[in-house]
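BUG: 3D viewer hangs when loading the predicted structure for this chain

Environment: internal workstation, default settings.
Expected: structure renders.
Actual: progress bar stalls at 90%.

Input used:
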Amino acid sequence: MSSPDVSVRGAQRNGGPRRVNPIDVHVGSRLRLRRMLLDISQEKLGDQLGLTFQQIQKYEKGMNRIGASRLFELSRILGVGVDFFYEDMDEAGAPAKATVGGFADEAECDVVGFMKSREGIELNRAFSAISDAKVRRSVIDLVRSLSIQDGAVDDTV
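Structure tokens produced before the viewer hung:
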């Protein structure tokens, strides 16, 4: 009787594609979020770990699983607990279904998704640096008027 045609790491021996584990994707997305919040490049993080930026990319996409010792090292470098990488997962250990950051509403998912993007992080950093409340209000009004002109949102928001 022959053994299944699957290697230890999960890739098929016949050269077929390896299935990406959703938990690895979630952990990788949390790694990417934290790295971007700290404004650390993949290359710089890789240097601190003795890895290439391509390896960091694979971790962030969930293509390569992050081992326990590496995850511990990442948590130390990024200044978070190991549990940070598992936040927003359900009790069974699976990423929360149909949500982003625990939000089920599609509009909320869009907002949270944007906030986790590079543009969202940059926009928030720049906006937070504006100390004058009137200027912040003007920026909000400007962005709202541009989005209305573009047909992206209605003006009742």
